[in-house]
Design brief:
With 91 residues, the protein is α+β, with helices and mostly antiparallel strands. The chain has helices spanning 3-14, 18-37, 83-89; strands at 42-44, 48-55, 58-61, 68-71, 74-81. Helix 1 (3-14) crosses helix 2 (18-37). The mean pLDDT is 94.
Length: 91
């Protein structure tokens, strides 16, 4: 399911206009992204949680040349499936 399909499903289920559904979806995703950008955890009970994981700097290698390269510290978003979603998918 992509964003447009999600908007269509909300439009049909809530009986609202497509533009209103698109606004709701955009607000939802923007709020999640803003919270994660601040380093906050986003939890949707029964479905999933999103969090940001910090990685320290480390020394890696360029696979082409074998040269050592310093990898800068970074933050990456992660998704963790909730128990109810696991059970629903693995019926």
């Amino acid at each position: 399911m992509n964003k447009l399909e999600f908007i269509s499903a909300l439009k049909t289920e809530a009986n609202i206009s497509k533009s209103d559904a698109a606004k709701v979806i955009q607000i939802f995703f923007d709020s999640m992204a803003d919270a994660m950008a601040k380093g906050e955890r986003v939890e949707i009970r029964g479905l999933c949680s999103f969090y940001v994981k910090d990685y320290k700097s480390y020394t890696g290698r360029n696979p082409k040349t074998g040269e050592k390269v310093v990898i800068k510290p970074k933050k990456l978003p992660f998704f963790k499936c909730g128990k109810e979603l696991k059970e629903r998918v693995d019926y």
